[in-house]
TrEMBL record:
Superkingdom to which the source organism belongs: Bacteria
Lineage: Bacteria, Bacillati, Bacillota, Bacilli, Bacillales
Limits of the 4-vinyl reductase 4VR domain: 116-178
Family, as annotated: Belongs to the CdaR family.
Protein name: Hydrocarbon binding protein
Length: 602
């Protein structure tokens, strides 16, 4: 017998009187595709996608296995290959799918069979009701092919789909191999064919639901205890300790890697956290379970929760963390609001100090500050770009141990910090260290730090405040692409102009006055700018200037004529000299700010 000789009428016996249909003397029934589709959908809804897939693959296996046993006993087959090919013919005759065999390679111990499935009812049902998936959808067909070929060949054969219409491919293509030939990822298909029943699937689903329900009940109890912590006004530290004990995991709440609260189970976990967070040793993640969760409220970034354990978190752990995070958020937002209120109170009173004489009222608010207005102080102004990062910088400074006893305020577009006497001795070191820390923490930020004059009383403090803001604005305008520090001492007499003049106009003024002279020096490698500065430093005395520059009087006169021509000024008049002197002051102030080497904190 050859597979191509199989005919439907020869396979099926029908009895019109009784309505019984038989296949090889065994009763069969015709089932509509709609009914099979409904069964498929109900199984997916009841068991979930993965379990429904397993159940239908086993159903297909048993169907194919029985067909293989039946067809093998009905005829004397010409050779084993014809018996194997009879399976696709039979599947087509039964109306399940049109099978087009492609290649078949057969030995005594192995089989490699490929082909196409056309008009798969499973693929069409899946797309119609669930849409195209990410995995193959012809589960009954795969099971049928595996069961039939296993029965006919006498060894375990697994079929799988290379392409499937149900996941968006233009056709369904199957591959069938003996287990020994399968790739590792396809050997797992064997697990689907273990003896299971719908009852066992439902029982397993019930057990899972029961477990989930128990987990929810237990997490609700934890949440109730956490809520009591909140209502009893217990601190964040106590809440973190409680959750760490419940989870048996270490917890850290940090902000830009600065710890706010922590509960480490042991020193090893503490070392793991510091290696991972401070030293960026991310290999710790391969040896430990480290998870992070953001803590935010009303679009305010309050920090993050870091959970450290040895084993992967269970569903129960994740539920508890979800409940705990909501409590942490409430506690931290409450603290944030109080801190903001304190900052605002300090900022408002500081503004009052700067604009009104309230020395006598300071005593009432002295508890808010770490400085005394009539002691030696100095104001630092920090301009942050982009400006949206200013609040993050404020939070960073608040949590940083170096600045915990410093007074700082957010004022207009600046952050203002007061340095007291002990910091003033090393002002450049302190400000450079501050800049280094900000640049390390905020990689894409730019910072313009102005340091005002030394003050010994409230009147001087106001001047130091104005100095610092003006300097920050000036270096922002002159070097927008860099992060810089400039001290009051760097600016010299130009400070008088910075406070009373539009700083953009100052820059335009220097460029208009000596801009061409600077460009001429760059192109010709000349020293006309130094000649002009020396001439002005010696109040226009030709002999002293010539001696200083080692020039002849004639050579100096030539240079001065060229300088006057390039700058379009008359150096013989007081007005011309004043314009050049002011332009030079602005230029060298910018040069100092741009060239000052950073001092790195060791």
């Amino acid at each position: 017998m050859k597979a191509s000789q199989l005919l439907f009428d020869n396979l099926i016996e029908t009895d019109p009187r009784t309505g019984i249909i038989k296949f090889n003397h065994k009763r069969s029934v015709l089932v509509s595709v709609e009914a099979l589709g409904l069964l498929r959908r109900d199984l997916i809804n009841t068991l979930g996608m993965e379990r429904a897939k397993g159940f239908l693959m086993r159903y297909g296996w048993e169907w194919g296995k029985k067909d293989g046993e039946t067809i093998a006993s009905m005829y004397n087959w010409k050779n084993p290959k014809e018996l194997l090919l009879a399976g696709p013919v039979l599947h087509t005759l039964e109306g399940v799918v049109t099978v087009e065999p492609d290649t078949i390679e057969l030995t005594e111990s192995s089989i490699h069979f490929t082909g196409f499935w056309r008009n798969s009812f499973e693929a069409k049902e899946h797309i119609e009701y669930l849409g195209a998936g990410n995995d193959h959808t012809c589960w009954i067909l795969v099971g049928y092919a595996s069961g039939y070929l296993t029965s006919a060949f006498g060894k375990d054969v697994i079929a799988y789909e290379e392409c499937c219409f149900g996941k968006g491919d233009s056709y369904c293509r199957f591959v069938a191999k003996t287990v020994e030939q399968l790739e590792e990822k396809h050997k797992s298909y064997l697990n689907y064919y273990k003896a299971e029943t719908l009852v066992s699937e439902l029982d397993r689903a019930y057990q899972e639901l029961n477990s989930i329900n128990q987990t929810i009940i237990e997490s609700d109890k934890i949440h109730e205890e956490l809520t009591n912590y909140l209502l009893e006004d217990k601190g964040l530290s106590e809440t973190v300790q409680f959750v760490a004990r419940v989870l048996n995991r270490s917890l850290v709440i940090d902000y830009y890697n600065k710890q706010i609260e922590s509960a480490f189970l042991d020193r090893e976990d503490e070392a793991i956290y510091h290696n991972w967070s401070d030293r960026f040793i991310y290999t710790e993640e391969r040896h430990n379970d480290i998870s992070t969760f953001p803590i935010r409220a009303n679009a305010v970034n309050l920090g993050r929760l870091v959970v450290i354990g040895r084993e992967k978190m269970t569903q129960k752990d994740q539920l508890i963390i979800s409940r705990a995070r909501s409590i942490f958020t409430v506690q931290m937002y409450h603290d944030w609001k109080i801190t903001r209120s304190l900052w605002k109170k300090k900022e408002n009173f500081f503004e009052e100090m700067l604009h009104h004489s309230i020395d006598e009222g300071y005593e009432k608010f002295s508890h808010l500050f770490h400085f005394l207005p009539n002691n030696p102080n100095r104001v630092i102004s920090i301009k942050v770009e982009p400006s949206e990062k200013r609040q993050d910088v404020m939070q960073f400074l608040k949590l940083h141990p170096d600045y915990s006893k410093k007074d700082f305020f957010s004022n207009d577009e600046f952050i203002i910090m007061i340095l007291t006497n002990e910091d003033m001795e090393q002002i450049l070191h302190v400000s450079a260290n501050l800049l280094t820390q900000l640049k390390q923490q905020f990689k894409n930020g730019r910072f313009y730090i102005g340091v005002g004059r030394k003050s010994k009383n409230l009147a001087d403090l106001r001047k130091s405040y104005e100095d610092a803001r003006s300097i920050s604005n000036f270096i922002h305008l002159t070097h927008p692409a860099d992060s810089l520090i400039s001290l009051y001492e760097d600016m010299g007499s130009i400070m008088m102009f910075l406070k009373g003049t539009d700083q953009t106009e100052l820059i335009e003024f220097y460029k208009k006055t000596i801009g061409e002279l600077i460009e001429y020096d760059k192109v010709n490698e000349s020293h006309f700018l130094i000649t002009l500065k020396t001439y002005l430093d010696y109040n226009g005395n030709l002999q002293q200037t010539a001696d200083k520059l080692h020039l002849s009087i004639a050579g100096l006169r030539y240079r001065l004529d060229r300088i006057a021509e390039l700058c379009d000024v008359d150096l013989k008049t007081g007005e011309g000299r004043f314009h050049c002197q002011l332009a030079l002051q602005i230029y060298f102030a910018m040069l100092i700010n741009g060239k000052k080497p950073p001092i790195i904190h060791s």
